[in-house]
Amino acid sequence: MSIAASAPASDAPPAPPEQIDAGWLALRRWMADDLDALVESVTTSIDHLVPWMTWASGYDREAARSFLEGSGGPWKDRDDFGYALLAAGVVVGSAGLHRRIGPGGLEIGYWVDVRHTRRGIASLAAAALTEAGLGTPGIDRIEIHHDRANEASSGIPAGLGFAKVAERADEVEAAGESGVEVIWQMTAAAYPTSVGADVVDRVVGLAEFGRTGHQSSRAIFGAAALWRMSQEQADELLPVLLEAGVNHLDVAAAYGDAELRLAPWLQRHRGDFFLATKTGDRVGADARASLERSLERLGVDHVDLIQLHNLVEEDEWQVAHGPGGAVEALQRARAEGLTRFIGVTGHGLRIARMHLRSLERFDFDSVLFPYNFSLLADDAYRADVDELRAVCGERRIATQTIKSVARRRWTGDVQPRFSWYEPLPNGPALERAVQYVLAQPQLFLITSSDARLLRPILEAASSRVQLPS
Questions:
Q1: How many other CB atoms are there within 10 angstroms of residue 378's CB atom?
Q2: Residue 198 clears pLDDT 90, i.e. is over it
Q3: pLDDT tens digits for range 370-395
């Protein structure tokens, strides 16, 4: 986590930083220019806020203006520190540290725009503010208070390792309150070994996904991991993505039941993810039918990215790029709003060169190709990859990688197999392999189809990225 410290007057008490970088979530002081975003966020979430926030009742533009105009005073006086919460530059909520619990303490408050709930925003913001608050001179405890009826709020401090220290009678002020206030506390002594101490450090970073305008997590979820899973297993796995800040899904029509397994998740989280799928069809009518079938299976009206799956064979390439081919059909689908962008993917050592040919014929928005240390030891492949990356960099085409944690082809009759290759086991070698890819700022890494490696890969991806020696 990085912070930008404020500069208090010499006679003022210490203040927390005015800006905090918590991976994909940014916290900064509210500014006058945030008026429109604040009004939209609160009014959209009004039914969500009124049961717990007395100030939300009757909220209007003038109330927002008054809040923003008055927010500088408490910062100057060092007694109340309000932050806008931003994801990819968009206001998604508000949080604050407040000197209202006595000497040596700060209380955290927060609310999240209803359009962005269930993304772990409140937990990540509270974790960042706990670290920043306890890093403020003179502060030795952080508290979170909520009404007992607000069960959703109780999960935030509990999940960060706060201790519940009291329940006490409190005046009922908002419609949903029970009149019992629950108090959670984190002390400076307990914090270093608490489960919340490294929450921010476990979040995967973001980068611009080519020219799409989307800030994608640099680790993209490879939904091939859902291929043979039951819905129950998928539902248990997918929340890991929110915990790690992953906001980009990559699936394909050919990945068994993976699209079906994503559908219930997308009903709740469609707005939280950049959604990509693939078609293996080369004839235009077939590619269009494949896309429509994927939309039905995913339960959505459009995807963000449709990709030609493994376009490497010469005869298939000619059909896809020719009259009546898949490229032509997907352009029409894009014009109709069924997809926003079109990409191309592939496997094997020929694919980088084939992608270069594809980019000469059509201006794809993304490419996908294998990338790891062993593959790049092949001089010819490395030269093709370097050329491809240069072209993509010039044209702002997103570059995605697969097989980052591939060890070798399978040998013997090892069962079960959850990936097309034998992966590196969890451990230092896997971490180095992930770092090898992400040390290149232009590259995105698609996680393994072996779901057992999802957490280790995301942990490696959230670590400070540096090129292994």
A1: 12
A2: no
A3: 999 999 999 999 999 999 999 999 99
Contacts of residue 51, defined as CB under 8 A and 6 or more positions apart, other chains included, come to: 150, 174, 175, 176, 177
Q: How many CA atoms lie within 13 A of 445 on its CB side?
A: 31
> In the listed set 185, 202, 219, which residue is the last one of a domain according to the structure?
202
Q: Indicate the number of domains in the chain.
A: 2
Asked whether residue 183 falls in the same domain as residue 244, the answer is: no
Which residue shows structure tokens 């059509």?
Answer: 362
Pairwise CA distance, residues 449 & 423, whole Å: 10
Mean pLDDT of 19-37: 92
**pTM listed for this prediction:** 0.72
Residue 213 lies inside a defined structural domain of this protein = yes
- The whole-number pLDDT of residue 432 equals 94
- Domain interval for residue 286: 206-462
- Report which of 64, 136, 59 is spatially closest to residue 105, judged by C-alpha positions: 136
**3-class SS shares of the chain: helix, strand, coil, % to 5:** 40, 25, 35
Which letter does DSSP use for residue 350 in this model? T
Residues 79 and 120 in one domain: yes
CB atoms within 10 A of CB 104: 12
CATH number at residue 18: 3.40.630.30
The verdict on 210 and 190 lying in the same domain is: no
* E runs forming strands in 280-413: 303-308, 339-345, 366-370, 398-402, 406-408
Contacts (Cβ under 8 Å, ≥6 apart) of 188: 134, 139, 140, 141
User: Residue 179, SS3?
Assistant: coil
Which one, of 375, 369, 353, 351, lies nearest residue 433 by Cα?
A: 375
Tokens for 375? 């593959």
d(CA 458, CA 445): 10
CA dist 21 and 1 (Å) reads: 6
224 and 196 belong to one structural domain:
no
Distance CA 238, CA 261 (A): 10
